[in-house]
Amino acid sequence: MSLDTITTYRSTYAKLQSWVDEVAALTKPSEIYWCEGSPEEWVSITDKLVEAGTFKRLNAEKKPNSFYCASDPNDVARVEDRTYICSVDEKDAGPTNNWMAPADMKKIMTDLYDGCMQGRTMYVIPFVMGHLESDNPMFGIEITDSAYVVASMTVMARIGKDVLSKIEETEADYVPALHSFGAPLAEGQADVKWPCNDTKYIVQFPEERMIWSFGSSYGGNALLGKKCYALRIASVMGRDNGWMAEHMLILKLTNPEGVVKYIAAGFPSACGKTNLAMVEPTIPGWKVETIGDDIAWIRVGADGRLYAVNPEFGLFGVAPGTGWDTNANAMRTIEQGNSVFTNVALTDDGDIWWEGMTDEPPAHLTDWKGNDWTPESTELSSHANSRFCTPIKQCPTLADEYDDPNGVPLDAILFGGRRKTTIPLVTEARDWTHGTFMGATLSSETTAAATGAVGIVRRDPMAMLPFIGYDAGDYFGHWINMAKNNDESKFPKVFYVNWFRRDEDGGFLWPGFGENSRILKYVIDRVEGKVEARETPIGLVPPASSIDTDGLDVTTEQLEKALSVNVDEWKTEIPQINEWFEQFGDTLPAVLWTELDGLKARLEA
Ligand code: SAT
Ligand code: MN
Fold it and tell me: Where in the chain is the domain with CATH 2.170.8.10?
């Protein structure tokens, strides 16, 4: 590091300081700033982003202390084709991940990182995923040259001084997470609003518990505590230590008698996890409270039950489709401000808007690309993967249990995806192994949350396809082993739901949103053994009479269609599942082949 490099801090923790020095020597920033996570720091970071033109400050009467941001149009989503699991052994990445030998990847990326922060500030962000007060706090240090990442990480994770002190005092292990948008600034060179690089790499080194990211500042690619750590790296930690890192919301459900249950639900990105996590039940007397909307860390408690914690501190929700009639609690959360909105549209009075926020669009907007927009425009005003980034503490339905480092004991786990056909509204697994089979064969139509085609049916096991940090066959084995190594009778029941099934005319068979509370009620009624389900070839499916339809605007015929098991449609799934399983070779647990054989035989019978 050159002598004129200035830094705001030097750590007493030698391992940490030498890593920071090493990164600075490679990336060559002009200054180094250690984040403290204070309110003053938020002001100076956001001021700096406003000055750079990256942020526009929103009208304080509409959205206090909030900012609008438009990314480079080529940096709007996760880049799954540029995401790598660089395990030592290629086999450990499995057939569903991109792989490169760690040394080869490090060579490529070291060349990219060389001088990549020239003319820029290098930020050091100490963070913890989960609670600082937990028995074993899960630390990370993100180094980044992006002030946008600093602002977003301040919302999404617990960061700053307290975290750093604890890391230093206990000389704790932490996940080193290096990020650069890859746009060095020569002296006198004008900056752009959203620096990024055409070359992108999102890389996990599972054995070293280390993350390297280059070229993108989009959420899932750059906020490294989120998908890279809390899912990809944490899934490996969980495999090694008997716990689970899952792409699941966590909610608390209270019935009219005051009985409390907890449900986790794994749906792929942009399939309604945030909506379900803060749903307003349409059935009288039932209450849903929010614990998490995206990630659940699940451990076995002293009583043998599975306990789930949300390791995040904010919400990074899909904006379009979020409105007062679809997710009023998300609207109430963002209304309080302190938020960053990326790739949405700007109103003329300094507020934000997106498709689905209100029935009537404003007469004029500036769209996410900076162009004039009117209701006559043929393009959408907001990118389909535009996001709100907002503190979870502002959510009016946040459950007190959110602050419990021990988490909540799960009564049920739901899996779900977007499927126009085949998958009934709700199906219950016969046992944990069958539930693992359901998760392992989960399928969904692709969404705008990742680059690439939208609407293509793909297998997305446990909604974790882009986030499993090791061989997916071994990951299924880990699910099976969780029950084998513990008392399965204490485990949650598993269900497979599909809110998106259509009729012959393409209309949705189920209204979704608030009405999904009826399915939550059914799930809990099953947990308590209060209602009937019938055996079908694919699992236990309710008769329409087991669903509370009081006040529901759906005919019995339509509900029966939503719940029907179409043997012919299922028969066409079989070869697809077969092909999906075959690629795993001997890492696929044999019991999943047994499940498939059983399914086949029951469909033929
Ligand atoms: O960008 S994120 O990966 O955080 C959101 C998602 O795709 O789930
Ligand atoms: Mn997600």
Answer: 315-394
> Alpha-carbon distance 138 to 272, whole Å?
27
All CATH 3.90.228.20 domain ranges of the chain, comma separated, are 245-311+400-604
Q: What is the mean pLDDT of residues 250-254?
A: 98
Which atom number of ligand 1 is nearest to the Cα of residue 226? 4
Question: Which member of 35, 69, 86, 271 is catalytic?
Answer: 271
The third-level CATH classification (topology) of the domain covering 315-394 is: Phosphoenolpyruvate Carboxykinase; domain 2 (2.170.8)
Residue 3, pLDDT score: 45
**Topology (CATH level 3) of domain 245-311+400-604:** Phosphoenolpyruvate Carboxykinase; domain 3 (3.90.228)
* Residue labelled with tokens 């039932």: 286
The single-letter code of the amino acid at 358 is T
Q: Is 69 designated active site? A: no
Q: Whose CA is nearest to atom 4 of ligand 1?
A: 220
ipTM of the modeled complex: 0.96
**Per-residue pLDDT reduced to its tens digit, 296-322:** 999 999 999 999 999 999 999 999 999
- Which of 280, 278, 264 lies closest to 408, judged by CA? 264
Residues with CB under 5 A from ligand 2 (ion): 269, 294
pLDDT of residue 4: 55
Question: Is residue 445 part of an annotated ligand binding site?
Answer: no
Query: What pLDDT is recorded for position 2?
Result: 54
Rounded to the nearest angstrom, the distance between the alpha carbon of 545 and the centre of ligand 2 is: 34
**CATH code 3.40.449.10 region(s) in the chain:** 6-54+82-241
Of all ligands present, the nearest one to the C-alpha of 292 is 2
Q: Note the pLDDT tens digit of each residue in 354-364.
A: 999 999 999 99
> Ligand 1: which residue has its CA nearest to atom 8?
269
CA of 384 from ligand 2 middle (Å) equals: 15
SS (H, E, C) 370-425: CCEECCCCCCCCCCCCCEEEEEHHHCCCECHHHHCCCCEECCEEEEECCCCCCCCC
Residue 513 Rama label (left phi>0; alpha psi -120 to 50; beta): left
Strands 287-292 and 249-254: antiparallel
Q: Which of 80, 200, 211, 226 for a ligand 1 pocket mutation test, highest count of atoms within 8 Å of Cβ?
A: 226
The dotted CATH code for 6-54+82-241 is 3.40.449.10
pLDDT over 70 for what percent of the chain? 99
Ligand nearest to the CA of 247: 2
Q: Which residue has the tokens 């790499």?
A: 201
